[in-house]
Fold:
Amino acid sequence: MEKISVKVCLGTTCFVMGGSNLQELNDIIPRKYGDKVEVSGSNCLGLCSINWEYSKAPYVKIDEDVVTEATVEKVLDAIDKKLGIK
Ligand code: FES
Structure:
């Protein structure tokens, strides 16, 4: 099975909109999923500038899917769904 790639946006907009809390994912993901999921930080994913006023930052990308207004719970949930756990 292919690894799932999780990219946490570390750009300024996402960071100030709550992305700083998502740093926990760097610890949680390897512990929970081992080598099935790869987590990394990313520069601005280019999503925040599309519609600043309605920005749904912070953004996290899971493969090609975008999680908006990402929280640790939302991201873990999306990974579980992808893996077919939920
Ligand atoms: S700062 Fe996250 S998408 Fe731009």
